[in-house]
Design goal:
Beta-lactamase, 11 helices, globular, five-stranded antiparallel β-sheet, alpha+beta
């Protein structure tokens, strides 16, 4: 009898185990199917291309303006009246948005006069930025560096040490020749200066290896482009340039107060600067018209200034 009950008990236990195994198998099948479905959903989500709404707050500036043929014509008509005068004019204007260049006699050699002082000052601003000099650095003012009785000699005596910042200020603000001599001598001399300033231009010419103070509008335009494009580095220099000749030379007609450097010697009258118009631009004008060169450069810059304003271009 006992064996009979034990047999029945074992059979029921075995049936229970089979039922439990079937239940576990069913649960596992459901889990696997669900996991596969979830993976399929994730894959489908990755394949969906989400289309973003355009952001109306973002304004895309279109800088590719066509070349201003009217400006080109107006400039040529202006200089045409001086074609048979026996004097020379050169200009190089660069639209700093598109780097369009409007030029006339831009590769013709001119006596630079004090225009060279712009690139000379930039070289020292570069060395200050690179830690080679500090603005408080002292440079020796030797008797051999005296060129004329300018502003420098009214405040410093030969044989003394002069703060670099003062020399740079006097160089640009008063276009002082002795200040220029101190600076290029401390670079190793005039030829050393000319070799160093070649880094601002891609123009190659024989003048880099002579003692002549010769330049061309193309070279000066390259220097101006470097000045404009690195305005943060040359901020102090630009401020002094702006203060030095307000309402004169290139600023003679437009009267806005623009950074510029002039140079004059005998019949030579030159100027170079840039204007923050609606379309910013650089401009260099070289002339051999003596004092009358000031009016010529003022007129040319006025023509450019009017065309470089957005409201004029849209008319």
């Amino acid at each position: 009898m006992l064996l009979k009950y034990m047999k029945q008990y074992i059979e029921k236990l075995f049936q229970s185990l089979i039922a439990m195994a079937l239940l576990i198998t069913a649960v596992l099948s459901i889990c696997i199917f669900s996991s596969a479905s979830i993976l399929d959903e994730i894959q489908n989500m990755e394949d969906v291309q989400i289309e973003e709404e355009p952001d109306d707050s973002v304004v895309v500036m279109e800088l590719n303006r066509p070349r201003d043929l009217l400006l080109e014509q107006q400039l040529k008509e202006y200089v045409e009246q001086y074609r048979y005068s026996g004097q020379d004019i050169a200009y190089c204007i660069q639209d700093m948005d598109n780097h369009e260049i409007y030029a006339y006699n831009a590769d013709q050699d001119f006596f630079a006069a004090s225009i060279y002082k712009l690139s000379l000052a930039m070289l020292y601003e570069d060395m200050i930025a690179e830690g080679i000099y500090e603005r408080e650095s002292l440079l020796y003012f030797d008797y051999s560096m005296i060129e004329d009785y300018g502003h420098l000699l009214s405040v410093y005596s030969p044989g003394s040490y002069v703060p670099l910042d003062d020399i740079l200020d006097i160089l640009i603000r008063y276009s002082d020749n002795s200040a220029g001599h101190i600076l290029f001598d401390h670079l190793g001399g005039w030829l050393s200066y000319k070799q160093m300033m070649r880094g601002y231009t891609d123009v190659e010419c024989e003048e880099w290896y002579t003692y002549d103070n010769i330049t061309c509008a193309h070279v000066v335009s390259d220097v101006l482009a470097c000045l404009y494009e690195n305005a943060d580095r040359y901020q102090h220099l630009i401020e002094v340039m702006t203060e030095a000749t307000v309402g004169m030379f290139l600023d003679g007609n437009i009267q806005i107060g623009m950074p510029q450097k002039y140079g004059s010697y005998d019949v030579i009258c030159n100027a170079a600067g840039f204007v923050e118009a609606d379309i910013p631009y650089t401009i260099v004008v070289l002339t051999s018209f003596g004092y009358n060169g000031q009016q010529i450069m003022a007129d040319l810059n006025e023509i450019v200034y009017q065309r470089m304003c957005e409201d004029v271009l849209q008319q």
